Amino acid sequence: MLCKPKPSALRRRIRRIVCTVTAAVLILSVYLEFAVKSQLTEVVAAGMKTLSQRAVNAAVIDYLSDKPDIGERLTVPHTAENGSVTSVTSDPTAINSLKASVSQLAQDYIGELADREGLSVPLGSFTGFFLFAELGPDIRMNIGSRQTVTCSLKSTFESAGVNQTLHHVILTVDVELIVYNPFIIRRAIHTSADFEIAQTVIVGSVPTYAPGSLWQ
Question: Which residues contact 114 (CB under 8 A, 6 or more apart)?
Answer without folding.
Answer: 48, 51, 143, 144, 145
